[in-house]
User: Which sequence fits this backbone?
Protein backbone atom coordinates (compact mmCIF):
# COMPACT_ATOMS: atom_id res chain seq x y z
CA UNK A 1 0.00 0.00 0.00
CA UNK A 2 2.80 2.43 0.83
CA UNK A 3 4.27 1.87 -2.64
CA UNK A 4 1.25 3.70 -4.08
CA UNK A 5 2.16 6.75 -1.96
CA UNK A 6 -1.18 7.36 -0.24
CA UNK A 7 -1.62 10.57 1.71
CA UNK A 8 -2.66 8.52 4.74
CA UNK A 9 -3.27 4.86 5.55
CA UNK A 10 -6.24 4.27 7.85
CA UNK A 11 -7.31 0.90 9.20
CA UNK A 12 -10.68 0.47 10.89
CA UNK A 13 -11.67 -2.79 12.60
CA UNK A 14 -14.63 -3.56 14.84
CA UNK A 15 -12.67 -5.51 17.46
CA UNK A 16 -9.03 -6.44 18.04
CA UNK A 17 -6.67 -7.53 20.76
CA UNK A 18 -4.76 -4.57 22.24
CA UNK A 19 -1.35 -6.07 21.40
CA UNK A 20 -2.39 -6.66 17.79
CA UNK A 21 -3.79 -3.14 17.47
CA UNK A 22 -0.54 -1.69 18.86
CA UNK A 23 1.51 -3.62 16.28
CA UNK A 24 -0.80 -2.42 13.49
CA UNK A 25 -0.35 1.18 14.63
CA UNK A 26 3.26 0.93 13.46
CA UNK A 27 2.07 0.09 9.93
CA UNK A 28 -0.79 2.59 9.55
CA UNK A 29 -1.15 6.33 10.13
CA UNK A 30 -4.41 5.80 11.99
CA UNK A 31 -5.93 2.63 13.47
CA UNK A 32 -9.52 2.68 14.68
CA UNK A 33 -10.78 -0.24 16.76
CA UNK A 34 -14.23 0.03 18.31
CA UNK A 35 -13.38 -2.57 20.95
CA UNK A 36 -9.98 -3.59 22.32
CA UNK A 37 -10.82 -6.23 24.93
CA UNK A 38 -7.96 -7.65 26.98
CA UNK A 39 -9.79 -10.99 27.14
CA UNK A 40 -10.28 -11.41 23.38
CA UNK A 41 -10.44 -15.16 22.77
CA UNK A 42 -12.44 -15.15 19.54
CA UNK A 43 -13.60 -12.25 17.39
CA UNK A 44 -16.93 -13.97 16.77
CA UNK A 45 -17.77 -13.84 20.49
CA UNK A 46 -18.16 -10.05 20.21
CA UNK A 47 -20.90 -10.20 17.55
CA UNK A 48 -24.62 -10.83 17.81
CA UNK A 49 -24.42 -12.41 14.34
CA UNK A 50 -21.06 -13.60 13.00
CA UNK A 51 -22.47 -15.10 9.81
CA UNK A 52 -21.32 -14.30 6.29
CA UNK A 53 -21.69 -10.64 5.37
CA UNK A 54 -22.89 -8.94 2.21
CA UNK A 55 -23.28 -5.29 1.19
CA UNK A 56 -26.47 -4.90 3.22
CA UNK A 57 -25.21 -6.47 6.44
CA UNK A 58 -21.89 -4.56 6.31
CA UNK A 59 -23.86 -1.33 6.67
CA UNK A 60 -25.82 -2.59 9.70
CA UNK A 61 -24.67 -2.77 13.29
CA UNK A 62 -24.18 -6.35 14.39
CA UNK A 63 -21.67 -5.91 17.21
CA UNK A 64 -22.49 -6.63 20.83
CA UNK A 65 -20.84 -7.54 24.08
CA UNK A 66 -20.01 -11.24 24.32
CA UNK A 67 -22.48 -13.52 26.00
CA UNK A 68 -21.80 -14.47 29.59
CA UNK A 69 -22.23 -18.12 28.63
CA UNK A 70 -19.12 -20.06 29.60
CA UNK A 71 -17.19 -21.66 26.80
CA UNK A 72 -14.52 -24.21 27.64
CA UNK A 73 -11.33 -24.39 25.61
CA UNK A 74 -10.78 -27.14 23.03
CA UNK A 75 -7.19 -27.64 21.90
CA UNK A 76 -6.68 -29.82 18.86
CA UNK A 77 -3.32 -31.60 18.72
CA UNK A 78 -3.12 -32.73 15.10
CA UNK A 79 -0.14 -34.71 13.85
CA UNK A 80 0.09 -35.85 10.25
CA UNK A 81 2.71 -36.68 7.67
CA UNK A 82 3.17 -34.72 4.46
CA UNK A 83 1.37 -37.44 2.53
CA UNK A 84 -1.45 -37.57 5.09
CA UNK A 85 -0.71 -41.15 6.10
CA UNK A 86 0.64 -42.50 9.35
CA UNK A 87 1.55 -46.11 10.05
CA UNK A 88 2.20 -47.76 13.39
CA UNK A 89 4.48 -50.59 12.27
CA UNK A 90 8.03 -49.74 13.30
CA UNK A 91 6.97 -46.27 14.37
CA UNK A 92 9.79 -44.23 15.91
CA UNK A 93 7.81 -43.01 18.92
CA UNK A 94 5.54 -39.99 18.81
CA UNK A 95 5.38 -40.41 15.04
CA UNK A 96 8.98 -39.26 14.75
CA UNK A 97 8.28 -35.98 16.56
CA UNK A 98 9.59 -36.98 19.97
CA UNK A 99 12.16 -34.44 21.03
CA UNK A 100 12.69 -31.89 23.78
CA UNK A 101 10.60 -29.17 22.09
CA UNK A 102 7.57 -31.37 21.42
CA UNK A 103 7.67 -33.12 24.80
CA UNK A 104 8.13 -29.74 26.52
CA UNK A 105 5.08 -28.41 24.67
CA UNK A 106 3.05 -31.44 25.75
CA UNK A 107 4.10 -30.98 29.37
CA UNK A 108 3.37 -27.23 29.33
CA UNK A 109 -0.35 -27.96 29.10
CA UNK A 110 -0.39 -29.85 32.39
CA UNK A 111 -2.97 -32.59 32.88
CA UNK A 112 -5.98 -30.60 34.05
CA UNK A 113 -8.04 -31.29 30.95
CA UNK A 114 -10.29 -33.96 29.47
CA UNK A 115 -8.92 -35.99 26.56
CA UNK A 116 -11.20 -36.15 23.50
CA UNK A 117 -10.76 -38.94 20.96
CA UNK A 118 -12.51 -41.25 18.54
CA UNK A 119 -12.92 -45.00 18.98
CA UNK A 120 -9.97 -46.03 16.76
CA UNK A 121 -7.54 -43.72 18.59
CA UNK A 122 -8.95 -44.86 21.94
CA UNK A 123 -8.53 -48.55 21.11
CA UNK A 124 -5.01 -48.01 19.68
CA UNK A 125 -3.80 -45.97 22.65
CA UNK A 126 -5.46 -48.24 25.24
CA UNK A 127 -3.67 -51.19 23.60
CA UNK A 128 -0.38 -49.29 23.74
CA UNK A 129 -0.97 -48.52 27.42
CA UNK A 130 -1.59 -52.18 28.16
CA UNK A 131 1.59 -53.05 26.27
CA UNK A 132 3.60 -50.44 28.16
CA UNK A 133 2.24 -51.74 31.48
CA UNK A 134 3.22 -55.29 30.44
CA UNK A 135 6.82 -54.17 29.85
CA UNK A 136 6.79 -54.03 26.04
CA UNK A 137 9.41 -51.95 24.25
CA UNK A 138 8.40 -48.34 24.97
CA UNK A 139 10.58 -45.43 26.07
CA UNK A 140 10.23 -44.25 29.66
CA UNK A 141 8.46 -41.08 28.42
CA UNK A 142 5.98 -43.13 26.38
CA UNK A 143 5.25 -45.50 29.25
CA UNK A 144 4.73 -42.55 31.61
CA UNK A 145 2.41 -40.87 29.12
CA UNK A 146 0.35 -44.03 28.67
CA UNK A 147 -0.09 -44.54 32.42
CA UNK A 148 -0.94 -40.84 32.76
CA UNK A 149 -3.63 -41.15 30.10
CA UNK A 150 -5.18 -44.05 31.96
CA UNK A 151 -5.68 -41.82 35.00
CA UNK A 152 -7.17 -38.89 33.05
CA UNK A 153 -10.80 -38.26 32.14
CA UNK A 154 -11.50 -39.32 28.56
CA UNK A 155 -14.45 -38.59 26.27
CA UNK A 156 -14.75 -40.86 23.25
CA UNK A 157 -17.07 -39.96 20.37
CA UNK A 158 -18.24 -43.30 18.97
CA UNK A 159 -21.30 -45.17 17.85
CA UNK A 160 -19.50 -48.53 18.01
CA UNK A 161 -17.50 -48.65 21.27
CA UNK A 162 -19.22 -50.85 23.88
CA UNK A 163 -18.46 -51.47 27.55
CA UNK A 164 -16.49 -52.74 29.27
CA UNK A 165 -14.04 -49.99 28.29
CA UNK A 166 -10.30 -50.66 28.21
CA UNK A 167 -9.48 -47.64 30.37
CA UNK A 168 -11.00 -46.22 33.55
CA UNK A 169 -12.45 -42.68 33.52
CA UNK A 170 -13.96 -43.17 30.06
CA UNK A 171 -17.20 -41.56 28.89
CA UNK A 172 -18.53 -42.58 25.47
CA UNK A 173 -20.85 -40.21 23.60
CA UNK A 174 -22.72 -41.09 20.44
CA UNK A 175 -24.23 -38.64 17.97
CA UNK A 176 -23.26 -35.70 15.80
CA UNK A 177 -19.60 -34.82 16.48
CA UNK A 178 -20.05 -31.05 16.10
CA UNK A 179 -23.09 -30.95 18.38
CA UNK A 180 -21.42 -33.12 21.03
CA UNK A 181 -18.22 -31.06 21.09
CA UNK A 182 -20.23 -27.82 21.17
CA UNK A 183 -22.11 -29.12 24.21
CA UNK A 184 -18.85 -30.11 25.91
CA UNK A 185 -17.53 -26.59 25.39
CA UNK A 186 -20.73 -25.03 26.75
CA UNK A 187 -20.77 -27.18 29.89
CA UNK A 188 -19.60 -24.80 32.60
CA UNK A 189 -18.87 -27.73 34.93
CA UNK A 190 -16.43 -29.36 32.49
CA UNK A 191 -12.73 -28.70 32.15
CA UNK A 192 -10.97 -27.70 28.97
CA UNK A 193 -10.66 -30.45 26.39
CA UNK A 194 -7.70 -31.59 24.30
CA UNK A 195 -7.87 -33.92 21.37
CA UNK A 196 -5.73 -37.00 20.96
CA UNK A 197 -5.73 -37.88 17.30
Assistant:
Amino acid sequence: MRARHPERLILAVPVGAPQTIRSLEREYDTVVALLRPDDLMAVGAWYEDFGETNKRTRAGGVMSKPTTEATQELMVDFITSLDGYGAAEGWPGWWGLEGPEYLGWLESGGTDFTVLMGAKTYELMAGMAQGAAAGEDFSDDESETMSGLAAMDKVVISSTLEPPYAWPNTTVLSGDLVELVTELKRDATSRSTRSAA
